[in-house]
Amino acid sequence: MMTEEPTSRTDKATEMAVLDTEEDVATRSGAGGARVGVSRRKLESRRKLLAAARKLFVERGYHETRPQDISREAGVGHGTFYLHFEDKLACFLAFTDEAAIELEYFLAQHVGRVGRLEDSVREILRGIFEYSVAHPGVISAALTDASVLSTSDIGKKMPMTRWAEGWAVLIEKWKASGEVSPDIDSRLAGHLIVGAIKQGGGYAARENLDTEKIIDGMTMLFVRSLKKQ
Amino acid sequence: MMTEEPTSRTDKATEMAVLDTEEDVATRSGAGGARVGVSRRKLESRRKLLAAARKLFVERGYHETRPQDISREAGVGHGTFYLHFEDKLACFLAFTDEAAIELEYFLAQHVGRVGRLEDSVREILRGIFEYSVAHPGVISAALTDASVLSTSDIGKKMPMTRWAEGWAVLIEKWKASGEVSPDIDSRLAGHLIVGAIKQGGGYAARENLDTEKIIDGMTMLFVRSLKKQ
Amino acid sequence: MMTEEPTSRTDKATEMAVLDTEEDVATRSGAGGARVGVSRRKLESRRKLLAAARKLFVERGYHETRPQDISREAGVGHGTFYLHFEDKLACFLAFTDEAAIELEYFLAQHVGRVGRLEDSVREILRGIFEYSVAHPGVISAALTDASVLSTSDIGKKMPMTRWAEGWAVLIEKWKASGEVSPDIDSRLAGHLIVGAIKQGGGYAARENLDTEKIIDGMTMLFVRSLKKQ
Amino acid sequence: MMTEEPTSRTDKATEMAVLDTEEDVATRSGAGGARVGVSRRKLESRRKLLAAARKLFVERGYHETRPQDISREAGVGHGTFYLHFEDKLACFLAFTDEAAIELEYFLAQHVGRVGRLEDSVREILRGIFEYSVAHPGVISAALTDASVLSTSDIGKKMPMTRWAEGWAVLIEKWKASGEVSPDIDSRLAGHLIVGAIKQGGGYAARENLDTEKIIDGMTMLFVRSLKKQ
DNA sequence: CATGAATGAGACTTCATTCAT
DNA sequence: GATGAATGAAGTCTCATTCAT
To answer: Which nucleotides of E are covered by protein (CB under 7 A)?
Structure first.
C-alpha cells in the first residue's frame, strides 16, 4: 500500500518546492553500495508531478483532476504517480503544503519585520494579493476545505488553520507592544481574519475590483477591530 | 434527454421548505376539471427527497452522497429522484436554497427589528449559532463552495454571496443612522463578515468552544471594525 | 400485462388510419348495456397516439422515441399509451402497418390499372416517390429492420416482405401477359426490386438527386432485367 | 472526459483485422529506448475485444449487446473496453469497418480479375455467399443502418455506401469495355445492386433457399439490367 | 525506478412499464 | 377510460489504483 520511503510530506517536499535544491541527491558508491538519500531521477519526477498537480488542481479543482491527468501533464508514466504519492489525496496535501510554505516564504521576503500594526497588516495583505497575482488561483485552491476531500478526518492541519495561527501569533506580539487591545482573543481573531481574507479575496476577484481599494478597505476594518482605543 | 418538468428550483421548492404550505395542492373541480399546481403526492415526494438530501449532504458532504442514497433515505424509488431534480447538482442547490431561506426565516423570527449596532450584531450572531445548534452542520454544508461542485460556472448566486449582500444592506442602514462610519465599503465589509463567521463558526465547533464567548468575541471585533469612532 | 381489447392490430388500426372512419363508434344502450365496438373517446386517443408515434418514429427512429414522448406529443397522459398498445413494439408495428396500408391505398389511387410493363413500373415508382414527398421519412422508418427492434423473432411479416410479395404478384401477371421472361423467379425478383428501391431511395434522398432522373434510371434497370428479350 | 488515445479507427484496426500483422509491435532499443507503435499487449486486447464484439453484434444485434458483454466475452476487464473504443458506437463502427475490409479481401482472393460481365457478377455473388457461409450473419449485422444507431449523423461512410461505390467502379469498367450499356447511371446502379443483394440475401437465408439457384437468379437479373442489348 | 495497460467497483442517469387516484 | 407519479432494473461510462513488463 505504501510507497517506499514516503518521505515525510511536510519536510522534504515543501522545502524542496521553495528552494528547489538539488544538493541532497542520491549517489551510489559502486555496485551494491548503500543508497543515501533519493536519486536525482526520482526527485526530478516528483518535482514535475507536483508542478503538474498544482497547475491542474488550480485550474480544475480537486475532483475534476485525475492522477492520470497529473502524470500526463508532468510527462511521466501514469504509474509513476503512485511511486511518489500514496494516493490522490496525499498528492493534494503535498500541493497545499507546498503552497503554504511558498506563501510564507513569499511573505517573509516581501513583508518587512513586524512593525506598527496598520503598516504590517497592509503589508501582509499586499503580499498576499501580490502572491495571488503571481500565482493565480493557488490560494483559493489550497484553501479547499478538507471536508470536501474525504469524509474521514484527515487529522491534518489544513492551511487555513495554520495561517489563522500565524495571525494569532502576530496579534499576540502586537498585544505585547500595546498596539492591540488586550481583551481580544487572538486565536479567534486570527481565524476571523483568515476567513475574511479568503472570502474578501474571492469577492474582489469575482467582481474584478481594484486591488488597492480592497487592500485599503480590508486594512481599515482589520485595524479598527484590533487596535487599542 | 431531460427529466420532465424540472420544476423551477427557486420558486416552489424553497417557498415550500419554510412555510410548508399545502394550499396550492391540486384540486379537481369535478371530472375532467383543470389541474391547478402540483399534486399533493408529488409535493410529498419532493419534501421527502429534500429532507433526505439535507440529512445526507450534511452528514457526508456532496461528493459522498449518491442520488441513490437520497432516494433510499427518502423511501422512494431511485427514479423518483430524477422526477424532481434534473441532476444531483440541482438537488444540492435546492438544498442550499432551502437552508438559506430557512436561516433567513429563523433570523427574522429570532432577531428583532434592526436596532442599535452592537445589540443587532450580537442578536444576529446568536440567531446563527442557535440555528446551528438546531440544525447542526447545515450552514457549513450549505456554504460549500460552488467551485468544488462543478468546474463550469453555475451562474447561480451561492448562499455565501447572498448573505454577504444581506449584511451589506444592514450596514448601509447603520450608516444612515450614523452608527457606522461612512467611509466603510459596505459590500466589502459584508463579505468579510460572512467569511469571518464561516471560519469562526468552524473553529468554534472544532475546538468545542463556549458559544457565549465566541459570540461576545465576534461581536466585539465586528462592532469595533464598523462603528463610527 | 395485456391491455383490454388489444384490437387486432392489423384490422382495426390500419383500416382506420387510412379511412379515418368514425362510423363504428361505441354506443352504450343505457346503464349496464352491452358495449358495442369501441367508444369514440378511445378511438380518438388512439388516433392521436398513432399520429404522434408516426411523427416521432420518423423524426427520431425507434430507439430514440420513448412512449412518454409519444403520449406527450399526442396530448394524452403517459398511462394512456398502454391502454392502446401492449408495449412500445406493438405501437411501432401499428405504425408500420398503417404506413403500409396507406402506401398501398395511395398507390391504388395514383397508379392506374396494371398495364404495360414499363409504364406500370414507372407509374409505381413515381407513386412511391410522390408518397415519399408527401410523407417524408415514413417509408424509410417503416422499413426499419425488425432485427433491430428485438432479438426474439416477431413472427410478423414486415412491410418489406409484404411489398416484395406484392411485386411478385405483379411480375406473375406480366409473365402471364408475356411481357416478362418466364424464366424469372418472381419472388426473388420481388425482393430484389424492393431492396433496390429502398437503397436507391435513400441514395437519392441523401444526395438530393433529381427525382425524375432517378425514376427513369430505376425504371430502365428494372424493366431491362425483367422483360422478355 | 475522453478515453486516452482512441487510436484512429480506420487505420490500425482494420488493417490489422485482415492481415493480422504483428510487425509494428513495440520494441525497446535497449533501456529507455523510444517506443514505436503500440505494445503487443494492447494490440492483443484490442484483437480480443473486436472478435468478441463481432460475435455478439452478429448474434444479438447492436442494441442487445452491452459493452460489458463484449468485455466479458473477450476475457478482459470492463474498463479495458473504453481503453480501446471511445464508446459503444465506435466499437460497432470498428466492427463494420473490419467486416468491410475482410469481405473486400475475401473477394479479392476468391474473385479473379474483372473479366466478362456475367462471369464476374456470378463470381462476386458467389464470393459474397461463400463469405456469408463462412461468417454467418456478419454481413447482415455490418449493414445495420446507421440511422438506427444514433440520431445524429455519424458523418461516416457506412459499408453499404462503400460497397455501392465499389460496384459503380466496376460498372464503369464494363462500360469502358463495351459490355455495359453507356446510358446507365453507374452510381445509381451500384446502389440498387447492393440494396438488392442485401434484401435478396436476407430472403434466401430466411427461406433457406438453394444458394446456387439464388446466385443464378440474381446474376441473370443483374446482367440483363446492365448489359448492352 | 518507470511505464502504461488493465482493472472493476461504482457513479450517474434513463426509460419501459405499473398503479394509485 | 384517463392520468401522471412512481418504479427499479439496466445501461453507459469513469477513474483511482494495481501490476506485469
So the answer is: 1-21
